[in-house]
Amino acid sequence: MATRAKPDKIKEFQYSWVGKDKAGKVIKGEMRSAGEASVSAHLRRQGITVTKIKKSSTGGGRVTEKDITLFTRQLATMLKSGVPLLQAFDIVGKGHDNPAVARLLFDIKTDVETGSSLQQSFRKFPLYFDDLYCNLLGAGEAAGILDTLLDRLATYKEKILAIKSKIKSALFYPVAIIVVAFIITAVIMIFVIPAFKQLFSNFGADLPTPTLVVMAISDIFVEWWWAIFGGIGGVVYGFFYAWKRNKTMQRRMDQLMLRIPVFGPLVRKASIARWSRTLSTMFAAGVPLVEAFDSVAGAAGNAVYYDATKSIQREVTSGTSLTVAMQNTDQFPSMVLQMVAIGEESGALDSMLSKVADFFEGEVDDAVAAISSLMEPVIMVVLGTLIGGMVVAMYLPIFKLGSVV
Fold first, then answer.
1. Which of 101, 241, 313, 323 has a CB 3.0–4.6 Å from the CB of 293, allowing a cystine?
2. Number of other CB atoms surrounding residue 405 within 10 Å
């Protein structure tokens, strides 16, 4: 039996248009469509006589997670205030500084106006709205509590964004210092040490071993600086390129990340906080527990907890309690297991998971503060030893000359 070939997805573009309504009033707007003819046909069906159509520029930045979080909070606030849904999209879109966000909201609004449900419209943009987001929207639409669930979703996005920001800040500080230290070292090796070498060429005595070592390293930097910088840049680019595209490497790096001293416990606490917050939000919205795990698995941001969540989902589906299934993964502290057990017995699982998330988010705050205070003296010692060692090595011959005189 022959099967019909799946049609290719039609590429759409953004168009701005000017026209007149039935009363002769000039109106303007934007629309995403496959071509100008499609735009004209759509507007004619609305009783609008088109006078001008122009393809809009695709520039204007990109949509970030912070943009989505802010939009969700604004939309929740407006719906709670009684503003109609489509009007809320207009207000948020026109008031946003990022044109990319304005176009995204306009596309969603246009789709809703043509009869699609809010969940269907958001699912057309999976790059910005994941399954958790769309599932909660669908639950809110079905139950008639869209404003409440949007408020819960906005709170969830704000909490997750905050914890991601803390993790990034904790990791960024030492990385930035290492980069700066390497650049300073390279500058000294390439420009400063050769000047000392020329000075010592007529010294007329044997140079100390530390000075000879530093000068030899400087010669390597001067001759091979392009290979050193290019090699380091290539290794870093290749690492992140492979990390993004190789699932096996991602899993191994996530496993390694949890074992790194100091930073490993921080990443684990953050993963548990995000895992608990996501499951609490989904369960409180009325999403069945087994289905909620599909969204929870990816929300933890770590392959170890992704695998653990899938294992929990399989065991819960077969009739095992959530507490026992979580205990079998050996990835959750006893405090978390006890809180979940109490939640299951009392019927307040979402509340208990929310408290677990609050606790571990506080733990992440404390861990970030502790790491920051610990890293400062360590980095100062490392930089002082590195830079100071080079300076002393180059001044040793001068000290030796002074003692002889």
1. 313
2. 5
Give residue 80's identity as a one-letter amino acid code.
K
pLDDT for position 312: 92
Contact 330, 305 (CB under 8 A): no
Structure tokens at 128: 């910005």
Question: Could you tell me if 215 and 197 are in contact, meaning their C-beta atoms sit under 8 angstroms apart?
Answer: yes
Structure tokens at 222: 């001067």
CA distance 357 to 363: 10
What backbone phi and psi angles, to 5 degrees, belong to 4?
-75, 135
Hey, how many other C-beta atoms are within 10 angstroms of the C-beta on 291?
A: 13
What sign has the CA pseudo-torsion 194, 195, 196, 202?
Answer: positive
pLDDT above 90 (res 342): yes
3-state secondary structure string across 148-216 = HHHHHHHHHHHHHHHHHHHHHHHHHHHHHHHHHHHHHHHHHHHHHHHHHHHHHCCCCCCCCHHHHHHHH
Q: Measuring CA to CA, which residue among 18, 77, 73 is closest to residue 48?
A: 18
> Per the confidence metrics, is the pTM higher than 0.85?
no
Q: Taking phi first (over 0 means left), then psi (-120 to 50 degrees means alpha), and beta for anything else, what does residue 30 get?
A: beta
Lowest mean pLDDT among 34-38, 264-268, 353-357: 34-38
- Cα gap 38→192, rounded to integer Å: 66
Q: What is the DSSP letter of 84?
A: -
**Taking the mean position of all CA atoms in its chain, how far away is CA 285?**
24
